[in-house]
Protein: TRAP transporter small permease protein
Organism: Natronocella acetinitrilica
Amino acid sequence: MLSALRWLEDRVVAVERFLGSTCMLGVVAICAMQVFARYVIGYPLPWSQELATYLFIWTTFFGAAIAVYSSDHLAIQYFQDLLPVAVARIVAIFCFLIAVVTCAIIGYISLQNSLNAMDRSASLGYSMSWFYGAIPAGCFLMTYHFTMRLIDMVAGEPPPGRGQILDGETP
């Protein structure tokens, strides 16, 4: 069962990496086009900054979800290292439960907000729901990965990343 869940999570992360990389490539390409248009052609593209900003927001949320998957978010290990391993594991499980609930709540509320968005982007003319959607998408992906890390911890499996939560050692 755990191997099937891990396989599914690996596929989800592959999609996240592809979409995040594609968005970042789009940001770089749009910024390069904007520089070329402004300084070589003499006509700035009115939509480029807005689209680059929204793509960067999507990139950020994909990256945050990938960081949860690989346990690469910032962590202060000092106090956890002072605790006995069994207590540190319980504290880590509790912290992951808080993270799951928090991301799920933020994801739900932001999904409601993005679905109810009636405004349009200034220069592109698209519904802002497409751009606000990065928040619930990222939060639900983080909820999924935090839940998987929680399952790993309860099962005693090391997470796909550094594994510092179970063994109490820093890499």
In short: Helices lie at 2-41, 48-69, 78-82, 85-115, 129-132, 134-155, 164-167. The chain is about 75% helix and 0% strand. Residues 13 and 66 are 6 Å apart (CA to CA).
